[in-house]
Amino acid sequence: MTPEIPRPHRDDVLIAATSTLVGLLLWSLGVHSTGTGGTGYRHHLPVWAALVPMLATGGMELLRRTAPNVTLVVGTLAVVADQFTVGSIATVVMFTDLMYAAVVYGKPSMARRLPVTTGLITVVVTIATLAWLRSPQALMIGVLTGIVSFAPALTGATLRNHREAAEAARLRAEQTALLAEMDRTQAVAAERARMARELHDMVANHLSAIAIHSTAALSIDSPATSREALGVIRENSVQGLAEMRRLIGLLREAGAGQEAAPVPSLDGLEALLERARANGTASGLDFVLHDARRRAAPLPAPVELAAYRIVQESLTNALKHAAAGTVAVRVAREDGLLTVAVDSPYGDRPGPRAPGSGAGLVGMHERADLLGGRFTAGPRGPVWQVRAELPAEDGAVPE
């Protein structure tokens, strides 16, 4: 298949047509780059011979963008041939444009070489003409050579460098905007995941107790049992509503740039277990706390919150699924780690149970991973074990 010839650019067609018409007009008026009188090799050819290189150069203007290498070669041959005729100013002017276009639209290697090459040619021509003619007028030949070749090449190189710098700046701006958008998306996703964990951990405990005691009240035909269950349901609904209001207030205050409300800490574990005891009485559950932390150094706030939520979710799961018995919560701090362990009786249990979705285990695992800790949960014999190891030093907690 023959290669498709690229169509000339619209601006190149306009430049070629205008330059050729101006050249023809100057020729018809007898305006040449050299006089027609006198003797010399220029006048061995007829006057119309100046039209040949001029028309060739005008034709090359059509391809100044699409084939800059070809146009430069043909234009150079044409401007050299023009020196053997009476000469055309249009040919020389169009050659300067072809030199400029070769640098701007040509390959990067050509854009680098042409300014250096034309600069050297200008210097060599100046020195050679001075040595040959030994006249100050020889400097004019060097100046004209520089104007025709070196000046357009240097101008083209300057413009190309500016364009490449602008393009590089545009690409950097696009990449920066893309990275910023990716960071924003990741931040939104992380914040949504954090809110989902907080909402689940705060409300699931109360809703599980409400579900268990409402089921008991419906299944056991006893006024005393129903009254006790309704009391527990009311207490958990009020506490759950308070937790929801606290979360909503925290989000509003954080969105308004205000100081966030205090978050739960491990100092509230006793109160957390008291509520669990009240909710677990109907299921035959008891809850004990073994706190072996050293009180000397405070824990990082994210670690305090994560540990509290892991214990809270573990107690919620025990209320939902644990068999009758004792749920043991152990908290210890040593060797730069905070260890949280919750052991629940594992097995079939009588009475009402609340359904589970598995989101709690996922949330606990995510909390430990975000802090660079470890989390495990699963049955071991008659006990369901939850273990979390979290960094207890400020420098060890990821930002």
Topology:
Elements: H1 10-28, H2 51-61, H3 68-82, H4 89-105, H5 108-133, H6 138-219, H7 223-255, H8 269-280, E1 285-292, H9 301-321, E2 325-334, E3 337-345, H10 359-370, E4 374-380, E5 383-391
Helix pairs in contact: 1-2, 1-4, 2-3, 2-4, 3-4, 4-5, 4-6, 5-6, 6-7, 6-9, 6-10, 8-9, 9-10
- Domain module tally: 2
Number of helices: 10
Give the neighbour order of strands across the main sheet: 1-2-3-5-4
Shape, per Cα inertia axes: rod-shaped
What is the average per-residue confidence, as pLDDT, rounded to a whole number?
81
Tell me the major beta sheet. 5 strands, mixed
Helix content: 55-70%
Termini gap = 61 Å
Radius of gyration: 44 Å
Order of helices and strands: HHHHHHHHEHEEHEE
Q: In terms of per-residue confidence, which ranges show pLDDT below 50 for 5 or more consecutive residues?
A: 36-40
Write down how many β-strands occur, each being a DSSP E stretch of 2 or more residues. Answer: 5
Estimated share of beta-strand residues: 5-15%
Structural class: alpha+beta
Fold and architecture overview:
The protein starts with 9 loop residues before the first helix and ends in an 8-residue tail after the last strand. Residues 36-40 have low confidence and may be disordered. The protein is rod-shaped and about 130 Å long. The protein has 399 residues and is α+β, with helices and mostly antiparallel strands. It has helices spanning 10-28, 51-61, 68-82, 89-105, 108-133, 138-219, 223-255, 269-280, 301-321, 359-370, and strands at 285-292, 325-334, 337-345, 374-380, 383-391. The chain folds into 2 domains: 10-176, no CATH class; 266-399, Heat Shock Protein 90.
